[in-house]
Amino acid sequence: MDWQQKNAREHWDWKKNPIRFYTPDPEELKEWQQSLPWKLEDVFDFFSGLREGDVLEFRPSPPAECDQVDEIGTASATFDVIKMLFAHGGSIHKGQLLHFAAGRQLPDRLEVVTYLVNKGAPINDIMYQHDQGSIDLQFGVGLVTPLHGAASNGYLDVVQLLVEHGADLIPSPAEARIEKILLIHIPLSTERETFEAPRPSVLFKCFDFSGGAELYATACFKSPSALSAQSTSKTSPVASTLSTATSPSATTVPVPNASSSVTSSATPRATSSATSPASSSPSSTASRTSSASSVPTGGRLQYGGVNIAGFEFGTYDTCGVHTNPPYVNPTNWVAQINHFVNDDKLNAFRLPVAWQYLINQYDGADIASNTINTGNFAQYDQLVSGCLNSGAALCLIDLHNYARFNGKIIGQDGPTAAQFANLWGQIATKYAGQSRVAFNLMNEPHDESCNSPNGGVIDIQKWAATLQLAVNAIRAAGATSQLIILSGKGWTHAATYLPSSSDGSGPALMGITDPAGGTSKLIFEVHEYLDSNNSGCNCDCVTNNIGTAYGRGGFSALADYLRSNGRFAMLTESGGLNNNNCATYLCQELSFLANNTDVFLGYTTWSAGGFDSNYELTQTPTQNGNTWTDTSLVTSCVVKCFQGQC
């Protein structure tokens, strides 16, 4: 039995999740190497499942040759692995590589598609060219072109690239051709249903950039006879859109608190007027006129999940000194992640940790040694590794210090920018081989007196320079493929990035560069709670933050700003009480993100992990034997919105 057969038979859970691919552990690979009659390194398909850090260990030596690159690999393997397969004889003309790459749900999707196009991948291919019948049935991509697959996923940047390289908007294969297709790749479908597909000459008329796969199936496959009778003229309803839209990025498109009695992110602000759910609904807001540089694109968000709080407990008094290390329970918190992944199908988890915890300094003094403590880090790594081993798509390491260490501002009167960068360099060294780790540089920088000599005001230019040093240190450590999350001032509210904001965070952070190239992996962080001052401290919900957030620009204005600058953001904290009112507003907020996936990558809400049921904003599931029960807000919004069911 070869590796793929063993993989498919024993590890792919087809009933629960038919397109979730199993990633083997290195030790398991070694065991298979020793027990099976062939050499593992001779079978190139297995590389599609390897973690990036394992590639060098299992690289063929001497190099074996292969003539077919694994198709699934172009959708899920790291870019380095894909290039390695071609370097050892892989053919661009065998298999439907471009189809799978066009639907790739990883930050380097556009980069991989560009690479395949430049190698000569057939852009207008609609025929299957391999004998993996089961894969044919799982993915209907072979009955359409890569352009159609990219359009149905809302990947406008890939659509434009393919059109610019000769993709036919209305392909015309054999006349009146009808094919069978099994559409189990539709996110909202729970049944395997067979549909008659209309001939490709009319197929493209069915696509809508904001509707996603469900609209595609309903419009194109429910009434094939009517569709087949439609005009086959070589015109497209989206052709004019393509002629004016531009890609959000010139390089790639990314595609993841104190004791329980303390509330999150206390932002001292006055109360704003309530925003009506009806007056600021995502549907009405999403239809607004967008920036001339691009158009809003809807579809499934790349990342959806929750925070797993606990390792940062003790840092919430941002002016105080911290002398009490938190009680941590990584075993339980990893079990929560496994529940969220396996039962709820969430895929992104933010993992807050305090600087004090990482270096094990709780004497209230300035930093004595910035070296990461081995024992403490081993505990935290249980959480990070548990997140990675769960199959999550994104595990965010969040330094939860509010731009301070014991009340002093980092890069000003507190730890130096060099110390901050050094800490991140140490962290990045440990996770350089893990492409699903993201580096969330700092939680909620903000102005606060704290008896600082300058009144506690963060100098945004100094802060941007501090972040730049950290970015440089991360890349220098070899972590070149990971997302880096940048946080502006003002508790990282949406408005802090807008040109109208006095914080100046947007222009300052726009100037940060990535030594790895481009800016598509430098992501802006946003926190917006749903209460009267967007802090999470007043708990009950009055706004969806779309039109305005605390009387200032909300997600709508931020989306336009990001779009006009070709940048991306992620909502990494939001939440409210577990009641119907908060569910209404949170679902509206997350729906707006899903209607603007060209600029928003996803969300992690606040918070599960170490919080118990007495915490007002708890999203911690409860366990009874082998059964987990989610809070009502997680069930009604966090999970459903990621599935496209808000």
Task: Give me the secondary-structure topology.
Layout: H1 3-11, H2 26-35, H3 55-58, H4 71-76, H5 79-87, H6 97-102, H7 109-118, H8 133-138, H9 146-152, H10 156-164, E1 179-182, E2 194-197, H11 200-203, H12 212-221, H13 224-228, H14 239-244, H15 282-286, E3 303-309, H16 330-342, E4 348-353, H17 355-359, H18 374-389, E5 394-399, E6 404-405, E7 408-409, H19 417-430, E8 437-440, H20 460-476, E9 484-486, H21 505-510, E10 522-527, E11 548-549, E12 552-553, H22 555-565, E13 569-573, H23 580-594, E14 600-609, E15 622-624, E16 627-629, H24 632-642
Parallel strand pairs: 3-4, 3-14, 4-5, 5-8, 8-9, 9-10, 10-13, 13-14
Antiparallel strand pairs: 1-2, 6-7, 11-12, 15-16
Helix pairs in contact: 7-10, 9-10, 16-18, 19-20, 23-24
Biggest beta sheet summary: 8 strands, parallel, barrel
Instruction: Report the uncertain regions.
Output: 1-23, 36-68, 127-142, 170-293
Calculate the mean pLDDT score and round it: 73
Strand order, largest beta sheet: 3-4-5-8-9-10-13-14
Query: Can you tell me the CATH architecture of the domain at 282-642?
Result: Alpha-Beta Barrel
Note the overall shape: globular
GO molecular function, one term: cellulase activity
Pfam family, one: Cellulase
Family: Belongs to the glycosyl hydrolase 5 (cellulase A) family.
Domain Glycoside hydrolase family: 320-608
